[in-house]
Amino acid sequence: MRKLILAFTALTIAHQAAPAQEIVRPEIRPFAGAYIPAGVQRDLFESAALLGVQAALELRPWFHVLGTFGWVPGQTKYAGADADVQMFQYDVGIELNAVQPLRGAWLFKPFIGVGGGARSYMYSDDFLRDRTCAAGYGAAGVELEINRTALRLEGRDNVFCFRSALPGIKSRTRSDFGLSLGLAYHFR
Questions:
Q1: Model confidence band, residue 120 (pLDDT cutoffs 50, 70, 90)
Q2: Distance CA 149, CA 95 (A)
Q3: pTM: predicted TM-score of the whole model, two decimal places
């Protein structure tokens, strides 16, 4: 977590030191992919579909500020019985891009990002408690852009505190992964 905070601080300072640009480009980025539990999370949750949307502001060609909302309609393995669980993750973050022109108007934009927010678990079983806890992420991916549209591939490593749905169990730090494919539309 210290590395995540240090990276976020360094990127913020770099952004403040950069020369001003006149155009701010808003973006909308719907995506779909896979939620992949890791470590102990695999004992509690099944892999599942991941759906969501990001809203971003391109402040520089290489710097974005963004907000993400993700939804996983999943299954939990608590108490030996499968139950539905709705996982919601909402966060804000920053993204750094390397912009490489390709043939014609195409741009190749690999990126890295960091951010933080919260994650909520909503269980269908009445004996399981719904929970919300803090979450952070590190992301890497690539965007292939032409004019106002782009195709995006992103991988996220999520780290979060996890509060058990069963009473009497302490919070723990856990992780999982998200892989997604999406589109980006630039409004300017």
A1: very high
A2: 18
A3: 0.84
